[in-house]
Structures are given as C-alpha cells and as structure tokens.
C-alpha cells in the first residue's frame, strides 16, 4: 500500500474515534424504497442480512469497537438516504452495508463508490469519501475473502458502477449521501442453490460474520493503547 493511501486509511479510522473506540455502522439491507430484496428457497435477503448483522455487531463490540445499526428491528423499513444519515450522525469510521445478490454467479463481492453520483439533485459523496472508501474497501475485501477461501467464491472488488442503480446514478444512493467511508457487501448470491446451502446451519452465518469482522479489522484497525 502506498504511503498516501495508508494515511487515508488512518484518517478514515480516526473519524469515529472521538471516544477512543472506532464506530462501525452496520446497515442490514432492506426493506427500503427499492423493495424487500431477493430471496432463495429457504432464506430471504432481509433475514440473512439481519442475522449476520447481529452476529457481526457482537463480534466487533467484543473486540472494542462501538457499533451502530441502521435498523432497530429486522423488518423495519428505512430509506437508503436515512441509512447514510445514521452513519454520518454517528461519525462512523466505516459504513458497512450488508446485502445478498440475485444475479447469476456465486460468491462474495465488495462494492465502493468510485465517482460522485446524483440523486434528486444531490451530488455526492465528497472526493475525500471516495478516496477513503476505496482504500477501506480494498483492505476489507482482501481480509474477508481470505477468511472465506475454499468456502465461498470470490466475486471480486468492484465499484458502485457495476450495480444497476449505481450505473444509473453514478453511485449507489447510500454512497451518494454518505459522509463517511462506505462499502456494500453482496455476501452471497441467494438465488444460487450452493450459496444458499452455505447457510444451511448456524455455522454458515458465523463464518460470514467472522469474515466481515476480519474485513472491518483490516479496514479500520483499533489503535492499541500503550500499557
């Protein structure tokens, strides 16, 4: 990693550390203004994202992070703009948006904004957020996918432009309104039988949460205090 990129990563981590603990905002995807998301034969995207979010929250808090969720209940409807506003208000070091895909293929992919987009006349995110999101997403994806190696396919690190909404707007809505580093994870392709089978027991959810936790640690390291 180049020195300038490393500095950006440290700055991103510092955003949420006013109390000495980095704040991580976890956004369990859907329901939102774009619908209830996808579903497989057994699981729904809403259910998977919520369960993984709670497991991830528990892991991160045990490691010393402060965690903010964008929803209070599994089925709460929150618009994508509001999800970003919650992360902004918490001064999060990172906003992690959890989703499951429905397109062809298989595996785990990470998305980040690479340019400003526009929605309802509002342009964003800032160039600072674009840079810090890129650095955070790269570190996050490498660590997360290494944890899942041999269990879940790697769909790669991509920009918001690789999504239907991102391509239309220039970035995803949650990215456009975000004032903190942001990334979106498509944890699995839920309509793929082999991906859904990965969740067939509790261990699959735990493995996803562990991979996400390692990704967060790589993107936003906790600064250990000296004894």
Fraction in helix: 40-55%
Structural class: alpha/beta
* Rg, alpha carbons: 16 Å
The residue ranges in which pLDDT falls below 50 over 5 or more consecutive positions are: 1-19
Content of β-strand: 15-25%
Number of helices: 8
Order of helices and strands: HEHEHEEEEHEHHEHH
Separation of the first and last Cα atoms: 29 Å
The total strand number stands at 8
Largest sheet: 6 strands, mixed
Strand arrangement, major sheet:
2-1-3-8-4-7
The average pLDDT score comes to 91
Shape: globular
Secondary-structure map with pairings?
Elements: H1 3-14, E1 23-28, H2 45-62, E2 66-69, H3 80-89, E3 94-101, E4 108-112, E5 117-119, E6 122-124, H4 127-147, E7 154-159, H5 164-169, H6 173-176, E8 182-189, H7 193-197, H8 202-219
Parallel strand pairs: 1-2, 1-3, 3-8, 4-7
Antiparallel strand pairs: 4-8, 5-6
Helix pairs in contact: 1-4, 2-8, 4-8
Structure, explained:
This protein is α/β, with parallel strands linked by helices and 227 residues long. It is built from 8 helices and 8 strands. The protein has a 6-stranded mixed β-sheet with strand order 2-1-3-8-4-7, sandwiched between helices. The chain is globular, with a radius of gyration of 16 Å. The two termini are 29 Å apart.
């Amino acid at each position: 990693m180049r020195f300038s990129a490393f500095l950006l990563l440290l700055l991103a981590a510092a955003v949420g550390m006013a109390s000495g603990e980095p704040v991580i905002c976890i956004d369990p995807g859907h329901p939102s203004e774009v619908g209830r998301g996808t579903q497989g034969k057994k699981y729904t995207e809403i259910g998977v994202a919520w369960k993984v979010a709670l497991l991830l929250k528990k892991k991160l808090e045990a490691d010393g992070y402060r965690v903010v969720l964008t929803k209070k209940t599994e089925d709460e409807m929150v618009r994508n703009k509001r999800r970003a506003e919650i992360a902004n208000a918490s001064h999060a070091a990172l906003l992690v948006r959890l989703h499951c895909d429905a397109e062809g293929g298989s595996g785990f992919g990470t998305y980040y904004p690479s340019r400003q987009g526009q929605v309802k006349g509002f342009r964003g995110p800032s160039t600072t957020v674009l840079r810090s999101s890129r650095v955070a997403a790269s570190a996050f994806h490498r660590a997360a996918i290494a944890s899942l190696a041999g269990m879940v396919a790697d769909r790669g690190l991509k920009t918001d432009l690789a999504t239907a909404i991102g391509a239309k707007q220039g970035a995803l809505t949650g990215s456009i309104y975000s004032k903190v580093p942001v990334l979106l994870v498509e944890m699995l392709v839920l309509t793929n039988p082999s991906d859904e089978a990965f969740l067939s027991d509790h261990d699959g959810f735990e493995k996803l949460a562990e991979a996400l936790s390692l990704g967060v640690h790589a993107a936003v390291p906790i600064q250990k205090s000296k004894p």
